[in-house]
Records
---
Amino acid sequence: MTTHDSQSGSSHAQRRAGDQPTQIRKQTKPKREADERDLERAAAGLQLPAPVATYVNYRILPYARFCENQANGSRLTYYWLRISAIVLAAIVPALVAANLGGATRWIATGLSILVAGTTGTEHFLNVGARWGHYRATVRVSQERSLNVL
């Protein structure tokens, strides 16, 4: 077990004797945000006319952020619904096979209803396709923007 040094953000196990505490490098920005910063730098580095720069800063970049946020939300919803359905679907046959009595049947029935509800909700909301759509939109808009810039 390592102890944590709250002031420096490093653990004692990562230090050598006599060394100064070092910061643990945290990845705070995902690659997609780095791509967005690259696009902003590319737009700022060019001497774009004011209307074009305004369009890039107030239309293209916010739209890319919006699509990225929607993609992340859809991905999380998709994973949550899919994983819960898979886990519950695996538990139901085990409960039925155990045949521990009437209460087990009621629990298995309830879990079966939850599996049906989660899979139905996933298909109704179509979150898997939304996730793919928003990710593709972000990718295409970034590629086109970089090609233009």
---
Amino acid sequence: MTLSKWLLRRGLELDSILKWRVTKSDVVLNERWATVRKDVCVLPDGRIIDDYYYWEGGDFAQVLAIDRAGQVVLTQQYKHGVKEVVIELPAGMVASHEEPLDTARRELLEETGFSGHEWRSLGVLNVSSAKATTRAYPFLVLDVVETALPHLDEAEQIRVFLRPLEVVIEMMCSGEIADSNSLSTCLRALRVLGRL
């Protein structure tokens, strides 16, 4: 059964899904690493949810960078949220004074020492539509070259390594790369590259 048929059986159409109305919104936690907000929401049918909590996170840019030999620049680092060392694409928070493309360029250089000139935006991604305000700005850059040493933040320990695009696809499918943002960025980039 298609989504359209399922909705129609319930008296709905695709364009009839209504937004919730927020009657009250309070920041309940505002710390360096997290801001949490609590909303009181009125659903379209009138029911009230008086304790909808979500994270207000900063937006970030993420980069699928490929060198002239077809190798993808990857990073490996500890991520405390999942308490694991993970493999992912270079990424970083968009500063208030920056455009996402400027962030992508800066973070690729700072985290990996690589830079490139042929940049392409891959749109915008909602990181967790139900639980966060964060948006990701994925980018593809081709023909990157190593131009500097990495310049890491004080809390970062990052291992930089290269793998052929075909191997990265296998790493995605096997779960070796499990970061959903990296997977989404790769998926969009593969489409642009004509690999999907």
